[in-house]
Structures are given as structure tokens and as C-alpha cells.
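Changelog-linked ticket: manganese (II) ion example.
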Amino acid sequence: MSDPFQPTRADKFTFGLWTVGNVGRDPFGEPTRPPLSAPHLVEKLAGLGAYGVNLHDNDLVPAGARAAERDRLVREFTQALADHGLAVPMATTNLFSDPAFKDGAFTSADARVRAYALQKTMLSMDLGHELGAQTYVFWGGREGTEVEASSKLLDALSWFRDSLNFLAEYSESQGYGYRFALEPKPNEPRGDLFFPTAGSMLGFIATLGRPERFGVNPEFAHETMAGLNFTHAVAQVIDAGKLFHIDLNDQKMGRFDQDLRFGAENLKAAFFLVKLLEDSGYDGPRHFDAHALRTEDEGGVWAFARGCMRTYLILKDKARQFHEDPDIQAALAAYRVEDEELAGLTRKFSPENAQTLKARTFDREMLGQRGPGLEQLDQLTAELLLGVRGGLSTRSRPGVEVTT
Ligand code: DIG
Ligand code: MN
Ligand code: MN
């Protein structure tokens, strides 16, 4: 029997070269895995059923590489993509590793660094376009502070805006047609990062010269690190028509950015995120910005990648079951109370509607006493996720007769 949770290209699962290529280095330890070549990563991801692979410029072309070396690396990567049928939906720039960016790239207080960041990003946009990328991500890993006396908060926002406006114009002038996805994160590696949440990015996009070209790339771990509800953040981004990309992974609240395998920590939260994405009709890449635990060897890396995709597909099927479960649907129907007359009064303002509504009598006590049935709905959902909905467990328990 075929595996219902075997990923296919149609699922649009993508991984960054830096994710499955992560060598296990962390602030307290050296690499635990040897580096893997980009063509090898492409071949392995294709074999697992992924749709595409994403990259920072320096994931493929080391900083300072000569033109001939750059061309060879791009040629070999492009050949591997063609051989194995993977796409490159998204590209981005590494504006966080080079010491030149230690105090910011677009928000550096050194105008020479800001200009260098623009140059590096344009060259990276050229590479991304060459590989077919249509989405360009900006994650400002060094755009932040530890010392507020630097007194650059308002300047930093202005410099960041000027840089994005410049690069949006560059994309237009080159005919690249990029959609730019801004990725928020509250902190790390800087003490505080500018634009910490999805909401910050939505507010900032409105101030840009071409706001229609900009959206958000929210990441599960980044909102969760700050103790926020990631699914709520994504819902607001979807509502604004700005979910241009998404970084899926997992995270324990209040920890450093763990970039765990999708579903490794918060299965219930992951379920509601998948349900939201599928219910909303989001048709972009499901990008896993995550990496295998430092403990793992290469076999563990591919178990990690397979696990990300399988968990997404299993939760997608759970969302289907949620919609088909008669008890859950009955609980949802009972939860919502509609009233056509009141809808007519409140749907659109008119002086008459306002006067009628002001004159209306509401039974506050009844409204306060009504039970919404959320405990039952949540228990049914828990049992769906635990796999006991749609048929009792076949494991008999002492004193309990199992009926099938
Ligand atoms: C980290 O969450 C960031 C970088 O890996 C990259 O710039 C971006 C792409 O998804 N995510
Ligand atoms: Mn992260
Ligand atoms: Mn990310």
C-alpha cells in the first residue's frame, strides 16, 4: 500500500541549503557533521519528495570567491537542479555572517557598511533571479542593538526603509519582478532586533515606496520565542494579504532560536497552523527553516527533513478529519450564534441602524450564562490528534469491553 504521507512536488515543501547543510556548530561547540555539497543536498531532497531549495548567496558562493569559482559553483548547482527537478522559489542574502555587518547591515551607523550591504544584496538578487527565485527574503539578523545610547532608532528605521526602497526599484529596473518577504525576529543574534514581530513588519510595509511588492515571511520559532501565538500572527498576515512566504519549524517558548524539526515540540500549535494555512488556501512554499539536532549524523539530517514533511502531511490529514468529524462540526455549529436581524443592523452603519440598535434591549444575564461548549470542542480536538476519534482504540483495558 502506498504511503499516504509520502511528500510530492505538489506539496511545495522547500528547505534552505543552510538547513539540511547545517554542520551542527553552535555558540558552545564545533561542527559535528562534515559539510555537504549543494548538488548532494539537491539530490537527497529530491529523493525525499521536496519541491525546492532556497539559499543565501554565500550558501552557494563563498564570500570573496573569484568569478570563475562562482560560475563553476552556480553551474554545478543549476545542473543538479535540472537533473533532479528541484525549483529555487526563494533567495536571500547573508547580511549577518561577515564581521562588516557586526553592528547592522542596512541599519549600520557606518554609511560605508550600508552601501556595501546594498551592493551585496543586488549581486545576490542577480543570483537568485538567475536561479529562478521569485520571492526574496530579508531577515535582519544584525539589524538591532545592545546599546541604546547608540541613539539610532529613528535613523535605523529610515535607513532600512531607504535600502528596501532602493532594492525594490533595482528589482523593477532589472525586470526581476521579485516579491519581497520581510522576516521578523525579536532578538538573537543581537540583544534586540528591529522589527521584532509579524505585526511590526505589517506596519512598516505601509511606509514603503512600493508596499504592494512587500509581504511577510513569518517564522514559527521567532514569534514563539517571544511568547506569542504564531498562528494568530499568521492569521493577521493572511488577513492583510501579505503572507508571501513562511518559515516552518518548532520552538520551546522563551528559549534561544532552536529551529527544531516541524512538530517536534508543539504538535497542537502545529496542527492549528497547518489547518489555518490549508483552510486559507495559501499556495506558497511550505519552507522548513530548521535543522537537525547537533547530535545527529547525516542519516539524522535526512530523518529530520523527512519528519518535517511527514508531520505537515499527517497534520494536514488531521485537519481534513476535523472538518469531517460530525461531533466536532456539531460543536462548532453550536458555538457560533448568528442573528439575521442584528446582522442587518450592524453590517453597515446608518443613522437608522444606530438608533434602532441603541434602543434595542439585550438580556445580559442570558448572554453571560450561555455555555459555548469550548471544553467539549477542545477535548474532541485533542482526541482527534491523539488518534482515537473515528473508532475506539483496539487496545482493550481491564474491565472495559471494546466495541468496534
Ligand atoms: C533565519 O530565520 C533566517 C535566515 O535563515 C534566512 O535569512 C531566512 C530565510 O528563511 N530565515
Ligand atoms: Mn529561526
Ligand atoms: Mn527564518
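Closing comment: Example verified and attached. Strands lie at 13-16, 52-56, 90-92, 135-139, 144-145, 179-183, 192-193, 214-216, 247-248, 286-288. Residues 326-385 form one domain.
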